[in-house]
Amino acid sequence: MDEIEVVVAHSERATLRVGDVFLKVDTDQARIDAEVEAMALVPVPTPEVLWRKPPVLALAALPGATLGRLGGPSTGSPAAWAAAGAAIRTLHDAPLPPRLGRAGRSTAALAAELDEECAALVAHGILPADLVARNRQVAEAAFRPWTPAFTHGDLQIEHVFVDGDEVTGIIDWSEAGRGDPLYDLATFTLGHEEHLDDVIAGYGTGIDVDLEVIHAWWSMRSLLVVRWLSEHGFDPFLPGCEVDVLRSRM
Hints:
- By secondary structure, this protein is an alpha+beta fold.
- It has helices at residues 29-41, 78-92, 107-123, 129-139, 181-189, 196-203, 211-231, 242-248, and strands at residues 4-9, 13-18, 21-26, 49-53, 56-60, 65-66, 149-151, 160-163, 166-170, 177-179.
- It has one domain: Alpha-Beta Complex (Aminoglycoside 3'-phosphotransferase, Chain: A, domain 2), CATH 3.90.1200.10.
- It contains 8 helices and 10 strands.
- Helix 2 (78-92) crosses helix 6 (196-203).
- It is globular.
- One of its GO terms (molecular function) is transferase activity.
């Protein structure tokens, strides 16, 4: 019998791997519904849905491996990173979905959330005030008009699988919907700035890729998740992770 591998687990959801099957257990049925709906719409490869029995979604494993992980060494050739950029562009060029995604939050709502989180990080002594203030300043560049695209909404490096120089699939679509395309590019390259040029080369022209905005999203995403990660059994202070991303903006 195959062993059970715990891929990720916290109080809201868990993902287990049993052989070639991933079992996603989620307390929020709406997230599962959103994930299945998005995978049916996107023009990029996704895992096969094997079955659904709330609160569990069973997905087939994808061939290949990810290009690395946050806080770890990156793998894959420049061509593989460019292929990931091309796949992201294919997604962003797709017809807009009906749902508003995580990357589509209004500027006012996002700014209010960011200011609240920055205050909490300082008040609880989680991060130094100067580090928070500097990255809050950098994050300001993300607050600008943008043209909505079909976005993944949580495009971490661990969510894109490649085999050689070919993208074999993208996973975890529960945050997908209309949003800022540069949020996806920033999330995918978070902590792996050295591959940003490769990703942009594959992504191509036609959508304005403003590096200042990508840097802004790096700062904002890191500020928004540090406290949550610390409270849910993850360590954003590990080398190469979110706190190092924030320090790099100093």
